[in-house]
């Protein structure tokens, strides 16, 4: 699977609309002044394979050192569906396989099963505790440090939480902040089911509190899914341009912030040929990946996993 390196025009452009001139202008500026330098590949690279929203399908998974699944393994969250997906994942050759739940994985959420037994009922032999995980690492608002044979290690934090939409697992009221000061500062990879607001989120359907937590922690890689049609990759540098863009898209700032964003964009374009453009500062880029496998209503054809190098 080819590794993507650019900011996708589709998901970003969904923020733009003739009836919303300020966000539309911000999107145009953001796309015009993209990252000028990609992250440097280390001497001993680690290949990370990203998938999400398989919904009981079994896609082509590229080879790699680490396989990440960002939730929605299943369609209805039953024991048999989950076990089938776990059995399939355990056949993959990756040294480590790390999984979180998604809103469709009902059985994995004990709060949901207690509140809505009519949707998912645990029977003897088919309870959450009966699932056979094999060598899969399951994270639910927790971290793990993984060591690799090349002497490197990666800290991964995983959480299945998404803002409520309908009646599903691992959800919370949209106004509730479940992210502030939750992600450890030394996190290298963040694995979450839903996207941060403003990034690969179908025009602003992501979590704004997650976006602000990314500013605090700045992991190297953020993998999610949930919004199938927003699949893609985006490279982010937490600089003045990014701050202006995020604040405009979240409705916190107005045209004055757009002017500041324009001035910074012109400056970075002007000095880009000197090796001083975006992505060349001390602020390391963060790679955001919406790795949804199952397509949207227009194109339901499953996609392959996305492989990146850290």
How would you concisely characterize the structure shown here?
By secondary structure, this protein is an alpha/beta fold. It has helices at residues 9-13, 21-32, 79-90, 110-115, 208-217, 240-249, 255-271; strands spanning 47-51, 66-69, 96-99, 136-138, 142-147, 153-159, 162-163, 171-172, 189-192, 221-224, 232-236, 286-290, 306-309. Helices cover 23% and strands 18% of the residues.
Structure description:
The protein has seven helices and 13 strands. With 310 residues, the protein is of the alpha/beta class. It has a six-stranded mixed beta sheet, with no helix packed on it. It has a five-stranded mixed beta sheet with strand order 4-3-2-1-13, with helices on one face. Strand 9, helix 5 (208-217) and strand 10 (221-224) form a beta-alpha-beta unit. The model is unreliable at 1-11 (pLDDT under 50).
Strand content: 15-25%
Largest sheet: 6 strands, mixed
Using only C-alpha atoms, the radius of gyration works out to: 20 Å
Average pLDDT: 88
Note the overall shape: globular
Give the SSE string.
HHEEHEHEEEEEEHEEHHEE
- The total beta strand count reads 13
The spatial strand order of the largest sheet comes to 5-6-9-10-12-11
Give the termini separation: 16 Å
What's the structural blueprint in terms of helices and strands?
Blueprint: H1 9-13, H2 21-32, E1 47-51, E2 66-69, H3 79-90, E3 96-99, H4 110-115, E4 136-138, E5 142-147, E6 153-159, E7 162-163, E8 171-172, E9 189-192, H5 208-217, E10 221-224, E11 232-236, H6 240-249, H7 255-271, E12 286-290, E13 306-309
Parallel strand pairs: 1-2, 2-3, 3-4, 6-9, 7-8, 9-10, 10-12
Antiparallel strand pairs: 1-13, 5-6, 11-12
């Amino acid at each position: 699977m080819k590794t993507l390196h650019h900011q996708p025009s589709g998901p970003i452009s969904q923020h733009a609309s003739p009836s919303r001139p300020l966000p539309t202008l911000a999107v145009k500026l953001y796309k015009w002044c993209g990252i000028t330098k990609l992250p440097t590949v280390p001497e001993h690279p680690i290949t990370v394979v990203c998938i999400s929203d398989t919904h009981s399908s079994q896609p082509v998974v590229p080879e790699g050192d680490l396989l990440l699944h960002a939730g929605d393994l299943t369609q209805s969250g039953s024991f048999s569906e989950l076990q089938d997906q776990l059995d399939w994942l355990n056949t993959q050759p990756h040294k480590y396989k790390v999984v979180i739940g998604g809103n469709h994985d009902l059985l994995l959420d004990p709060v949901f099963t207690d509140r809505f037994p009519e949707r998912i009922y645990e029977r003897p032999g088919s309870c959450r505790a009966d699932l056979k995980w094999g060598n899969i690492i399951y994270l639910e608002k927790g971290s793990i440090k993984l060591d690799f044979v090349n002497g490197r290690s990666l800290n991964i934090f995983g959480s299945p939480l998404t803002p409520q939409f309908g009646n599903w697992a691992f959800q919370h009221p949209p106004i509730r902040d479940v992210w502030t000061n939750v992600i450890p500062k030394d996190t290298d990879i963040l694995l979450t089911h839903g996207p941060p607001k403003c990034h690969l989120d179908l025009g602003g359907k992501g979590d704004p509190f997650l976006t602000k937590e990314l500013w605090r922690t700045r992991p190297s890689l953020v993998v999610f899914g949930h919004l199938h049609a927003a699949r893609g990759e985006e490279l982010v540098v937490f600089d003045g341009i990014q701050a202006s863009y995020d604040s405009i898209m979240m409705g916190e700032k107005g045209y004055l912030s757009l002017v500041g964003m324009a001035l910074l964009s012109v400056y970075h374009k002007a000095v880009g040929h000197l090796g001083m453009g975006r992505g060349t500062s001390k602020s390391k880029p963060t790679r955001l990946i919406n790795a949804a496998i199952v397509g949207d209503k227009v194109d339901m054809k499953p996609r392959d996993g996305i492989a990146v190098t850290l």
